[in-house]
Amino acid sequence: MIREWNEATIKRFLKEGRGQGTGKDYKPWLQINDISSRSRTTRTFGHTTQRVHHLLSDLQLYYFYLLEFDENVIDIREQFPLLDFHEMDLLIDSDLSRKLFDSKTKVPHIFTTSFFVTKVGNDDDPYYQARIVKISSELEKKSTIERLELQRRYFAKKGIDFGIVTENEINKVLSKNIGWALAAYDIQDYPELTTNFTYLKNDLLLLLMDSNISFQQVFEKIENLYQLSNGLGLVLFKHLVARKDVQMDLTRKIYLTKKPCDYGVQVKEVINDDRNKAVGS
Q: How far apart are CA 256 and CA 238, in angstroms?
């Protein structure tokens, strides 16, 4: 819950540009310093938006990873406020109307949706999705259901797809594997990898096509071939997964002692020539 909710808070948020902008310029309405929560909060950089995202629970983080890895997603706005909610003239009965204002201060509530996502379809036209991320046990509470119903009516009137996501709809292994790979999305801090990146990449892809050796053996081999520091073979692999130069089954826990073929690893086209060290290894 937000620590203090009054007219001054709303004016301050609006003055700061909260809930406004798109892409890298968007500022979430709620940030992790604004709330007192029993859930773990996270600030994480998003490569789709090129900005830091404020996520208020582990479940939001897991869902964020799925969005970040979705090629159709072009913008992710978390903690998105429905600033024009009270102007929508929705049909609301007396029970629901009590949810519109703070019971103590009578200040209008600013409802937020966990994620407001912009996607592109096959015709490249953008469309929107609003998603509320909640632990399923929360849906047993009448007050939660009432707030969700208000949001459902809001988005229905706007013609925007609205949905609720719980832990039952999120594959945590997949989400964690994506997060694991995304940690190496940017390798600019690893000059050993960027210096000969084209050849390193091709040789690692070639080694991954060898069905007789494990992931760990692949990484040790690329590190020995290029005299890389220990662990950089794994960093490079994660980078290629994050960039989708390597595709594999990410719905299963990854064991580096297993072979790439055990996870159906597929690689983009590689170039075999005398400059690639793995070819003659």
A: 12
Distance of CA 188 to the CA centre of its chain: 21
> pLDDT tens, 157-189?
999 999 999 999 999 999 999 999 999 999 999
C-alpha–C-alpha distance, residues 238 and 204, integer Å = 11
Q: Which of the following CATH numbers is that of domain 7-170: 3.40.50.720, 3.30.1330.40, 3.30.470.30, 3.40.1350.10?
A: 3.40.1350.10
Cα distances (Å, whole numbers) of residue 89 to 66, 82, 84, 110: 34, 13, 10, 15
Q: Residue 44: CB partners within 8 Å, gap ≥ 6?
A: 52, 53, 55, 61, 64
Written as six digits, the tokens of 236 are 């490079």
Residue type (1 letter), 204: L
Numbered ranges of CATH 3.40.1350.10 in the chain: 7-170
pTM of the complete model: 0.91
Could you say which architecture CATH assigns to the domain 176-280? Answer: Orthogonal Bundle (1.10)
